[in-house]
Amino acid sequence: MENLESYFPILGELSLKAGAIARRHYNSQVEFERKSDDSPVTKADREIELFLRQSLEKQFPDHSILGEEFGETKKNSSYRWILDPIDGTKSFVLRTPLFGIMIALEREGVPVLGSIYFPIQDHWLIGSAETGTFLNGKPCSVSKTERLSEATMILTNPRELYSETHGERLQRLAKSVRLVRGFGDCYGYYLVATGLADLMVEPGQLKYYDVAPMPPILAGAGGVFTDLSGKVDLLNGQGLATTPQLQEQILQTLNSL
Predict the structure, then answer these.
(1) Which CATH number fits the domain 4-139, given the four candidates 3.30.540.10, 2.40.30.20, 3.30.930.10, 3.30.420.10?
(2) Is residue 20's pLDDT more than 90?
């Protein structure tokens, strides 16, 4: 399948079925364990990833798969699926309905298609630079805000404002915008891709499966996804999603001495 739009119906169906699993667990007693990096994992994470892996292996037996909970299944293919069964497990455990089921497709090692499904809101975001980005089947785009002083900024963890590593830079940025909110994880990128917020910044600790869907989704919506220096690096743990007209203002504010 070279046409990325041909994947849309498949990912839509898988997202809806995975969302039903998430809601079943969300509406019952959520129990979790701590992984080696101290992040939580629930039965829902594992059940959703197993469902997605098995479904994708049936549909695309030659494609590789990399998932957060069960690692990598390598195949002799230029395509690889990246799975984050629940992005925002901490939100899920807290019964905060801002978590999402994330799927990305790589071609030749580069993410070219991204999908995020929010089971509680029943919002499905899918997109690529080749196809555009769609929310529940309708085209969506980033905001047209032109001045940083009028922008809305999203930050997953407010404690980052006081961190030794990035605190001073983030405070400088936060003081430069109109509004700052702490909506976490993939929900912040959803807000940027649909034009509801103007920038999402995460200074560190992101894993590859946390960010793989973001470059294609943002590109399809007319936005940009980079690290805090403006480079496209999905392995250094940083994320900055915004609009082309705000990017330079943000980078200057973050990186001014």
Answers:
(1) 3.30.540.10
(2) yes
Dmax over CA atoms of the chain, in Å, equals 53
State the Cα–Cα distance between residues 180 and 149, nearest whole angstrom: 11
Q: What is the CATH number of domain 148-255?
A: 3.40.190.80
CA distances from 183 to 43, 119, 233 (A): 24, 16, 23
Strand partners, 101: 117
CATH 3.40.190.80 domain residues, the chain: 148-255
- The pLDDT tens digits for 177-231 are 999 999 888 999 999 999 999 999 999 889 999 999 999 999 999 999 999 999 9
8 Å CB contact between 161 and 171:
yes
